[in-house]
From TrEMBL:
This is Polysaccharide transporter, PST family. GO terms for cellular component: plasma membrane. It is a multi-pass membrane protein. Its main location: membrane. InterPro entries: Poly_Biosynth_Transport (IPR050833), Polysacc_synth (IPR002797). It is found in: Cell membrane. The chain crosses the membrane at residues 20-47, 76-98, 104-123, 135-153, 159-181, 202-223, 235-257, 278-301, 313-338, 345-365. PANTHER family: LIPOPOLYSACCHARIDE BIOSYNTHESIS PROTEIN WZXC, PST FAMILY PREDICTED COLANIC ACID TRANSPORTER. Keywords: Cell membrane, Membrane, Transmembrane, Transmembrane helix. Belongs to the polysaccharide synthase family.
Length: 417
């Protein structure tokens, strides 16, 4: 609850900024911002490469400061290694985007924003019991960006200022974070061999996160290659609202995932019971959010974003069904499979859903724009849930999760073979 109170500012931020962008920049200008954020987030997810999940798990299990120092150095070096291919991919993406083709300077800043964001240390603070420190750093960054955006962006022609200002805010957060942990580094960089080993160790989780989550993050950018800016804006606004809703699960995960991971070793039955309780709360919340959105979307979107965003309401009413489906996949993955080191099943589900998502998205988005991309997003989420449930059923993991009897620690819980 303390983390949720601290995170209130995090959710106030988009509620203030999204309508401001829409009214000041217009639907076309806001479409550029959404496409840029999509590309920036995609680069961030690529360079992060699942390191945050692996690093948090390793830091929780670290027994001394020397081990944690080694983890910090390995993660910094591994991110630097992946920054070069991330830069190359970002520049190629700018070239092929209809939105950035005539705004190459804006596109370059977007790429650097994504690269810089990948060096965030939030995973380290939360896994070492300093969740409130991580939140305070984010609040400082949000405050900085809000002040800069409100201070310098007043008309559609100020679009060129948006991403440089966000870059300044991101750099401010990183300076604060790395200053706070400067004494926890034994050496700044690790050996290249250690960084490559970390990349290999994180590959399975990246396949899971880097196929499904990365494609979700890149959906708005992909649409910018296939449709007009107005379509990008309609889908992008709906996608950001859905993402904001799903992000409500993040603060709880910071506290509960380490707890479940610990219980998996010490008391598996209690870990399963806690996972079921977590699922019940989040699924009930997702159903309520879905019903409220279906009821009020037609009234809420024009009121908040102004005229020119009427199409967003219809897109949002379709995409809102992602809520309950995504809650199921996230609980199964974060609270059951990952604590048991069963990422391989997640990887398979991520790859299949990504292939289906792309196969469906391109033709649907080409013909129906924002509604087509929203349909593809929902199909991808349903595919991932289906593959996960089928894989868990074949491995008898579903019966283990829903068992009410005390259980031992099965062999398969701590191996991927």
């Amino acid at each position: 609850m303390a983390v949720y109170v601290a995170y209130a500012f995090r959710y106030l931020y988009p509620l203030l900024l999204l309508p401001y962008y829409g009214r000041v920049l217009g639907a076309g200008g806001y479409g550029v911002v959404l496409a840029g954020m999509s590309l920036s987030n995609s680069i961030w997810l690529f360079v992060n490469f699942g390191f945050s999940t692996v690093g948090a798990r390793d830091a929780v299990q670290a027994r001394d400061a020397r081990t944690r120092a080694s983890i910090l150095s390995d993660h910094l070096t591994a991110r630097l290694v992946l920054s070069l291919p991330g830069l190359i991919v970002g520049l190629i993406a700018i070239h092929f985007s209809l939105v950035f083709l005539h705004r190459p300077a804006v596109g370059c800043v977007v790429v650097f924003l994504g690269l810089l964001a990948a060096f965030n240390l939030g995973w380290y603070f939360t896994s070492t019991g300093r969740a409130r420190t991580s939140v305070l750093i984010e609040v400082a960054g949000f405050s900085t960006s809000l002040a800069l955006i409100f201070g310098f962006v007043h008309r559609p022609s100020d679009l060129a200022y948006v991403f440089p200002l966000l870059l300044i805010s991101c750099a401010t957060q990183l300076i604060i974070a790395y200053w706070l942990v400067r004494k926890e580094f034994s050496h700044l960089f690790s050996r290249l061999k250690d960084a490559i080993n970390l990349i290999r160790k994180s590959t399975t989780i990246f396949i899971y996160g880097g196929t499904s989550v990365l494609l979700i993050g890149a959906s708005t950018y992909i649409l910018s290659m296939l449709a007009r800016e107005s379509e990008v804006s309609a889908f992008g606004v709906a996608e950001r609202l859905i993402a904001a809703g799903l992000s409500l699960m993040a603060p709880a995960a910071q506290i509960l995932v380490p707890r479940v991971t610990h219980l998996v070793v010490t008391d598996p039955s209690r870990a399963n019971r806690l996972t079921r309780q977590i699922f019940a709360w989040f699924f009930a919340g997702a159903v309520c959010a879905t019903l409220l959105t279906l009821t009020f979307a037609d009234w809420f979107i024009p009121l908040v974003f102004g005229h020119g965003f009427q199409q967003t309401a219809g897109v949002l009413k379709l995409m809102v069904f992602v809520f309950p489906v995504s809650v199921c996949t996230q609980v199964l993955g974060m609270y059951f499979l990952i604590p048991r080191k069963l990422e391989r099943l997640l990887a398979r589900a991520g790859v299949v859903s990504a292939v289906v998502n792309i196969a469906v998205a391109v033709p649907l988005a080409t013909h129906w724009g924002a509604m087509g991309m929203a349909t593809a997003r929902l199909v991808g989420e349903l595919t991932m849930l289906t593959v996960l449930v089928a894989g868990m059923h074949r491995s008898n993991l579903l019966s283990e999760l829903f068992s009410v009897e005390p259980v031992g620690v099965p062999v398969h819980e701590f191996g991927e073979g």
